[in-house]
Amino acid sequence: MELWVVGKVVFEDRQRWEIQGVFDNEALAVAACRDEWYFVGPVVLNEVLPHESVEWPGAYYPCILGTE
């Protein structure tokens, strides 16, 4: 099952982020984004991810792209 995580970059230091919600479809996740600091990304339920840091496939900032 694919879920969509919504997060926002913490403006003060831009080195961390806070989770804002988890949704069962991309449209609901995008609708939860309030400004250009919010991002969405897909995750698969019960899937183990790599321990090392990697790019998040499919993650993006909807408000920057003008798709809000």
Please tell me about this protein's structure.
This protein has one domain (2-65). The protein is of the alpha+beta class and 68 residues long. The longest helix is centred in the middle third of the chain and has 6 residues, at 26-31. The chain is built from two helices and three strands; from the N terminus they run ββαβα. 15% of the residues lie in helices and 32% in strands. The protein has a three-stranded antiparallel sheet.
Shape: globular
Class per helix and strand makeup: alpha+beta
Total count of domains: 1
User: What distance separates the N and C termini?
Assistant: 24 Å
Question: What's the SSE pattern?
Answer: EEHEH
- Overall pLDDT confidence: 92
Which secondary structure elements does this structure contain, and how are they paired or packed?
Blueprint: E1 2-9, E2 17-23, H1 26-31, E3 38-44, H2 62-65
Antiparallel strand pairs: 1-2, 1-3
